[in-house]
Design brief:
Elements (H helix, E strand, L loop, with lengths): L1 E5 L6 H11 L3 H5 L3 H19 L2 E5 L11 H20 L2 H32 L4 H12 L10 H17 L27 H10 L12 H25 L8 E8 L12 E6 L2 H20 L16 H17 L3 E8 L9 H10 L4 H11 L2 E7 L2 E2 L3 E3 L10 H8 L3 H6 L4 E5 L2 E8 L6 H14 L1
Parallel strand pairs: 3-6
Antiparallel strand pairs: 1-2, 3-4, 5-10, 6-7, 6-8, 9-10
Organism: Salmo trutta
Protein name: Reverse transcriptase domain-containing protein
InterPro entries: DNA/RNA_pol_sf (IPR043502), RT_dom (IPR000477)
């Protein structure tokens, strides 16, 4: 197999920046363009300049990546070992065999030591990052299996059927969040335009992940973002003030990820979809996330029992809340029942109208509400699997997994679940789409099963 990739070593960021600026209209003219036209103009200029200055080069694909602990010293050892082996096979002399065995033993010991040193330093560097530490252990304990004979169309058909089956199982209901609530004294009617410095911080602080929808590598865009700042500022602010998300920012490339390394990789049911979004679209989302999160926090509109997608919270806080509730109940001589709930395809089955109604109840209106409505609607995606890509498909439900705003919107969508649970006298705690119900009761209570059943029935209706 031959791989084609851009030769970034020969590319000067200053040359790229100059080429992009020369192909763009003036900053003043650009600021008067519509969000759609401005985004397509900027992306086309980025792509054309990058493709011209950094054409694709070809190289043969490796059957397996080189070992990261293999340094120049080990390569020299390996060369000497192979030379000794060739000499012995040619002469068949005992002395040459002994020399070969000695070099083989030395090389094996050196590789083991280098491998141990490599992973020790990797564990040390990841000691404060549980996510990286777990990924390192997982790569050692669960080596990736060979890719199964699946296609992108297999996945796209499976993902769509799964969502359709779940939605068809719901009872028919109106697309509203429920009965009208008392008007809130607070309101968010628009998102404020950001200063160039704020835009610069958003661009440079983002993780430089690159997906096929990006016209240039994200790290390179961060490097030249200072030169493009007037254009980036105009584009993001025009979207915020117009309450409109450019169509090109509503496309996703979906990557199927195996849920657990121990599952059968040939079964499409064992995969979950993760949306890969362009770097600039996520930058725009971050511009909204900061203002939306600030509004919700200042007005105490977030569910206090939700540990997912919240600053200062994590799986650890969720675990502590549940274990502390159980410990307190035991200290008070109460028995406890713990029920663990998980919503299937939770992000993919979000009803847009119900979500938008919920946002209205939270005081979000005007251009701010219009922006989120634009963000949710008119989206499309393609599934990419190995070397195949499916045809574009429209998204009529759900919030994209892998997005910046999706998790927060999902937590607002499910906020009303808490009142359903509390109405039955049960306590709860959530992490994303996982909900833990906790019911503590005197051992003599003979209505426990009935109360739990009634709560679960109302949750099912919800």
């Amino acid at each position: 197999m031959v791989l084609r990739h851009p030769n970034l070593r020969s590319l000067s960021p200053a040359t790229l920046s100059s080429s992009i600026l020369s192909s763009l209209p003036s900053a003043q003219t650009f600021s008067n363009l519509s969000p759609d036209f401005a985004s397509s103009t900027l992306l086309s200029s980025l792509s054309a300049s990058f493709d011209f200055l950094c054409p694709l080069s070809s190289r043969p694909a490796r059957s397996s990546p080189p070992a990261p602990w293999l340094d120049d010293s080990l390569r020299a050892h390996r060369t000497g070992r192979r030379a000794a082996e060739r000499k012995w096979r040619k002469t068949r002399l005992p002395a040459d065999l002994a020399s070969f065995h000695s070099l083989l033993s030395t090389f094996s010991s050196s590789v083991s030591a280098a491998k141990a040193t490599f992973y020790h330093s990797k564990f040390q560097a990841s000691a404060s990052n549980p996510r990286k530490l777990f990924a390192t252990f997982s790569s050692l304990l669960n080596p990736p299996p060979p890719p199964p004979p699946l296609t992108a169309d297999d996945f796209v058909n499976h993902f769509e059927k799964k969502v359709d089956d779940i939605r068809s199982s719901f009872a028919k209901s109106s697309d509203t969040a429920g009965p009208a609530h008392t008007a809130l004294p607070c309101a968010l009617t628009s998102f404020s335009p950001l200063s160039p410095d704020e835009i610069s911080r958003l661009v440079t602080a983002g993780r430089p992940t690159t997906c096929p929808l990006d016209p240039i590598p994200s790290s390179l865009l961060q490097t030249i973002s200072g030169d493009l700042l007037p254009y980036l500022t105009s584009l993001i602010n025009s979207s915020l003030t117009a309450g409109y998300v450019p169509s090109v920012f509503k496309r996703a490339r979906v990557a199927p990820l195996l849920k657990k390394p121990t599952l059968d990789p040939s079964d499409v049911n064992n995969y979950r979809p993760v949306s890969l979004l362009s770097f600039l679209s996520k930058t725009l989302e971050r511009a909204v996330l900061g203002q939306l999160s600030c509004y919700l926090s200042q007005n105490d509109l977030l569910d206090p029992n939700q540990s997912g997608f919240k600053t200062g919270h994590s799986t650890e806080t969720a675990l502590l809340c549940v274990t502390e509730a159980l410990r307190t109940a035991k200290a008070n001589s109460l028995s406890s029942a713990l029920i663990l709930l998980d919503l299937s395809a939770a992000f993919d089955t979000v009803n847009h109208q119900i979500l938008l109604s919920t946002l209205s109840e939270l005081g979000i209106s005007g251009a701010a509400h219009a922006w989120i409505a634009s963000y949710l609607t008119g989206r499309s995606y393609q599934v990419a699997w190995r070397e195949s890509v499916s045809a574009p498909r429209a998204l009529t439900t759900g919030v994209p997994q892998g997005s910046v705003l999706g998790p927060l919107l999902f937590s607002l969508y499910t906020k009303s679940l808490g009142s359903v649970i509390s109405s039955h006298g049960l306590s709860y705690h959530c992490y994303a789409d996982d909900t833990q119900l906790i019911f503590s009761f005197p051992p003599s209570d003979n209505q426990v099963a009935n109360r739990i059943s009634a709560c679960l029935a109302d949750i099912s209706v919800w």
